[in-house]
Write a structure and sequence with these properties.
The structure holds two protein chains of two kinds. Chain A has strands spanning 4-7, 10-13, 19-25, 31-37, 44-51, 54-57, 64-66, 76-78, 87-94, 103-104, 108-112. By secondary structure, chain A is mostly beta strands. The chains are: A mainly beta, B mainly beta.
């Protein structure tokens, strides 16, 4: 199993550009989520999904969209990038949701100029 | 707002020593507790869950004190490879947004 994979590893954007961060898992996990990690801050939940076709907002959803058309994939879209979205983004998945072990992807480092 | 507080460190500890750090949480209704390890520029990985009775995994011991609302992690006979950031994670339930991550404690094991 590849576990949780994320692409790209690194990305530089200009303010106003849009992009999609890809996340996929091959463990048949129902629950998937996106976090951002900033210096001096804990991981903060952006959006999450409890299954295909179901998504919900986390703590910091503004400026991001998600969709979950399959169990395996959970892309995160930045609609119009801003410097405040410079961060490291982690995708995570688990079987039963927040109470269980979260498996994280390797992360995407995003710089918005 | 649910809070999970950790001493950011860094804790500089000689190899072979014992080190312990705590994490406090504000929500008394919190249901489950975890320690994750995060290496530099890597993703977090589960180190161990924390059970009410306390639990041990090799050189690592985790304790939960519900009355005082803190959890602790003890590392015995520390190795150079233990150098990492240790994240305290608390699940307050209420659905998929129930996990709260601490900012982490940075541990450096020195030869």
């Amino acid at each position: 199993n590849a576990g949780v994979t994320q692409t790209p590893k690194f990305q530089v954007l200009k303010t106003g550009q849009s992009m999609t961060l890809q996340c996929a898992q091959d463990m048949n996990h129902e629950y998937m989520s996106w976090y951002r990690q900033d210096p001096g801050m804990g991981l903060r939940l952006i959006h999450y999904s409890v299954g295909a076709g179901i998504t919900d907002q986390g703590e910091v959803p503004n400026g991001y969209n998600v969709s979950r058309s399959t169990t395996e994939d959970f892309p995160l879209r930045l609609l119009s990038a801003a410097p405040s979205q410079t961060s490291v983004y982690f995708c995570a998945s688990s079987y039963l949701g927040q109470g269980e072990t979260q498996y994280f992807g390797p992360g995407t480092r995003l710089l918005v100029l | 707002r649910k809070e999970v507080e950790q001493d950011p460190g860094p804790f500089n500890v000689p190899e072979g020593a014992t080190v312990a750090f705590n994490c406090t949480y504000s929500n008394s209704a919190s249901q489950s507790f975890f320690w994750y390890r995060q290496d530099c520029r890597k993703e977090p990985k589960l180190l161990m869950s924390v059970y009410s009775s306390g639990n041990e995994d090799g050189r690592f011991t985790a304790q939960l004190n519900r009355a005082s609302q803190y959890i602790s992690l003890l590392i015995r006979d520390s190795k150079l490879s233990d150098s990492a950031t240790y994240l305290c994670v608390v699940n307050s339930g209420g659905g998929a947004d129930g996990l709260t991550f601490g900012k982490g404690t940075h541990l450096i094991i020195q030869p």
